[in-house]
Amino acid sequence: MITFQETGLQANIIQAVSDLGFVDPTPIQQRAIPFLLANERDLIALAQTGTGKTAAFGLPLLHLTQPKARYVQALVLCPTRELCLQISNDLADFSRHLPQIKVAAIYGGANINKQIQQLRRGVQIVVGTPGRTLDLIRQGELKIEDLNVLVLDEADEMLDRGFKHDLDAILAAAPRDKRTWLFSATMPDEIARISRQYLRDPERIAVGRVSSGAENVEHLYFVHEKKGRYAFLRRLLRNYGQVYGIVFCRTKRKAREVARRLQRDGFNAVPLHGDMSQNARDKAMAKFRSGKARILVATDVAARGVDVDNLSHVINFDLPDVDEVYIHRSGRTGRASNSGVSIAILSEEETRRVRALENLARKRFTHMQADDVEAMAETPVPAAKPEPQPQKSAERDPAPENKKNQGDEHYKAVYDKLDLIMDTECDDPNLVRQFPHLHEYLSDIPKDELIDRFVGYLHNQGMFKRRGDGQSSRKKQRGGRRKSRRR
Question: Rg (Cα) of the chain, in Å, rounded?
């Protein structure tokens, strides 16, 4: 095993690594960093999520960057906003003793004008998602003609999420003599095509078994049909003891629904999905990383970039369509020498996939019975922080104890209507295309004021009236008229 001092990194970077508390390089770092510093060849690095890939390419990237040259020397592409922010923050931490090096994060869902201003001020490293990166290249605001290094991080995930054409366009626009470093957890055919088309005589590094699961993760599965699955999840969480983990759902709508129901049932849960504004996503992740929220309900796309070492559980509320995605999910727990538990809730038909998942994970899965849930309260859970006592959520709680109108059925109708609105998805593609402009139009309005005006408008439109409200009102009016006639 080599140390960071032996990798060849410059002293300022090693000092930053030491300040951050890193002692020994991980296996992917031990192999990638010396190679990238000593060779001009391209690189294909295969390693699972959570193995330290960001430092494996980020540290040599900073070492090779010229601080005094204020043009874009390196571009890092990644699949999600969360991962984009995580990488840019890590690079900022690694370069804390290199103040002249500037890093910009560019991603969709944020104000593009602010990102353009940051690029115009001069940066050496850009971290971006493919869509926004390509937009800025085509606008002439992101200039990559002098690019030295292009990094494709989570390359397989970018292809899975439909960025194939964007990646091809960016790779085609980049200089032919640049260096390309491709980091991926798997090596599907499309990644092989990209490597043949755009990489020059690449070195290949594979750490661990590609697509295999973490060694210290226990895999359990329950069989339960879709109907009543939320009630089973709630029962599971209440009886499992201390849980600090992620509940994965297949769709944004399901993630939103499960998170809201958990909040209403007293769990400290937050959602994370693609329909949330960037500010809301940042707040959700801050609560989860700090432990104020114990459960993150997420989709696979949104969870990319969620880097928390001490998660105790991963729960698959829905099984992913692709078996390898299950391995990525389960790899969120059991990190940093901790043990973890990955749980899948399967329908009867889905049990046929267990054997394939076992082969990928190189682990035997334990079939748990629904009756086993009650016994889990006695099971100690490693790596989890003490969970606060369940309390009523402050968000969309229909009857908080400190409200004067507790028990008022009119207010129940308000929350029922809000639940209906939150479960609605827009089916007009022309309107959906306007969403980014609407977000920007409303971005300066404080959240509290926006909520007050929104609810007030619905009230004034009569949206919160229960059935019979109008009828009872008319009866009162008719009764008043009869009394007037009698007088």
Answer: 26
> SS3 of 316, please?
strand
Three-state DSSP class for residue 146:
coil
Cα angle for residues 155, 18, 100 (degrees, 5° grid): 70
Under 8 Å between Cβ of 248 and 271: no
Q: Which residues contact 38 (CB under 8 A, 6 or more apart)?
A: 8
Instruction: Give the Cα separation of 72 and 167 in Å (integer).
Output: 18
Q: How many other CB atoms are there within 10 angstroms of residue 467's CB atom?
A: 7
Q: What is the pLDDT of residues 122-169, one digit of tens each?
A: 999 999 999 999 999 999 999 999 999 999 998 877 877 778 899 999
**Could you give the CA distance from residue 85 to residue 129 in angstroms, rounded to a whole number?**
10
What lies within 8 Å, CB to CB, of 107 at 6+ separation is 80, 81, 84, 85, 128, 129, 132, 278
Using an 8 Å Cβ cutoff, are 42 and 199 in contact?
Answer: yes
pLDDT in tens, 414-443: 766 776 676 566 777 778 777 777 876 776
Predicted TM-score of the model (pTM): 0.57
